[in-house]
Amino acid sequence: MPRSRETTPSTPEASKEEKLIMLEKLESAIADIESTRTKYAEAVAGKDTDKQTTHRAEYRKLLTRAKKLQRTLEGKHGPEPITAAWKHNDESGKEIAEEITLDVETSLDTYTEFYTKHSIELPPDFRERIAELWDAHRAEIVEAIESRGYNDLVLVPGGLTSAKLHTPMTEGYVETYRSPNFESGGSFSGVKEDTTKTHLRLLHRAHNLSDHPVLKETRGKKNDSYGAEGGMTLADYLIYQRQYFEATGKHLDVSSWTWLPGSKSGSQIVGARWGPDGGRLYVGAGDPGGADDGSGCRLSRSFSSK
Fold it and tell me: Is the C-alpha dihedral spanning 146, 149, 154, 158 positive or negative?
């Protein structure tokens, strides 16, 4: 069972002098947050996308710092980052040990800001549920990083279906291409996927499948052959595709389709990509057991609330 936040060990209580110093730092951080928010609003008004990206990143750092200071003042312990080594061979066969750190608190700030920006309401205990999942599954997360090189997170509240997400996650794009197979399964409103539970998903931050050795190996395999790691849903993909674009200015999967075996359209497995014609998302569906040389799968590991 996930460990409750009340039973999480507290940090040693700070002295009166230490608390005063931390309070001054917290007040300074809050002032910096307000200043950065103002700069971001000015960048939005001026349509300066480079400054928007810079100020968003700075805002997240300041917010994380302020929250850590607040917890320390209150004697509370937050979710700690996880660091693990992923060992793999490069193209020449040489073994490489890559240290990967995932900081769920920073990701919580990122996704809280992201959902707020897109007018998606979060449950009041969203942060607490994700923190509990993080603490409860630390050993499994370490193992997943070590075995597969997962280096990013998507954090998702329960109840966000593909039908609910499609419009906000494609705002400003050309209308989404829907293949005939996907349309015959009911389009977005007909997608069958488990979206009821709040969850965190480990995945690979890679522009295309060919950019990460683990994802590259999935190409050409049957769309129903990826096992437990092939559970990526269209709903999560819509979120991650948009978040990746807003953070990098690039779209995922411009060079190939990726299967999303966690979602079905009728009896078929859903697939998606950024369209080769530019400007819009492509969504399709194929019979189980289907495969082609260019398509692959965005493998992932999901941990959900009870």
Answer: negative
Task: Dig out the tokens for 4 from the structure.
Answer: 């409750």
Q: Minimal CA–CA distance to 5: which of 107, 122, 105, 135? A: 135
Which tokens go with 50? 């480079």
Which residues lie below 8 Å from residue 118, measured CB to CB, with a gap of 6+? 168, 169, 171, 242
pLDDT, one tens digit per residue, over 36-68 is 989 999 999 999 988 888 888 788 778 777 877
Whose structure tokens read 């509370």?
76
Mean pLDDT for the stretch of residues 70-77: 71
Please list the residues that pair with 200 across neighbouring strands: 155, 303
Cβ neighbours, 10 Å, residue 89: 10
Taking the mean position of all CA atoms in its chain, how far away is CA 275?
Answer: 21
The candidate with the shortest Cα–Cα distance to 156, out of 3, 304, 4, 5, is 304
Q: How is residue 306 annotated by DSSP?
A: -
Residue ranges per structural domain of the chain: 5-74, 82-304
Beta bridge mates, 297: 259
pLDDT digits 0-9 by tens, 229-281: 999 999 999 999 999 999 999 999 999 999 999 999 999 999 999 998 878 99
d(CA 306, CA 304): 7
Task: Assess contact for 281 and 176: CB atoms under 8 A.
Answer: yes
Using CA atoms, how far apart are residues 251 and 242, in angstroms rounded to an integer?
8
> Exposure string (b/e) for 123-143, b if CB count within 10 Å is 16 or more?
eeebbebbbbbbbbbeeebbe
